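haha ok so turns out i had the wrong file open the whole time. this is the CORRECT one, sorry everyone. sequence first:
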Amino acid sequence: MARFDVYANPGGSATTTPYLLDVHSDLLNGLDTRLVIPLRSLKHFPRVKLSTRLTPIFNIDGEDHLLETPKMGAIPLRVLKTPVTSLAQAQNQITAALDFLFQGY
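then structure:
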């Protein structure tokens, strides 16, 4: 597992939120949970004005997905299977969203 890997969402909301982004530090790989942020399909998201700093948009497999940073949570490691892609190239954007959530800047 690597930080910023994207996994298929195994939960019941997979239709609207098909992916989960792993934001867990690689230094803590020994834990049995991972901290993830839902990636929600924009076609299933109400058109409201959101801060792109808090909720940036990423394209996965040709479709735009909103990073729902305020809805992140821990899930058991066992539910995450093979990553479908990585957003490591967007590390600065993702980290900025986390900083904005936790620090307000």
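Residues 9 and 77 are 12 Å apart (CA to CA).
again sry for the mixup
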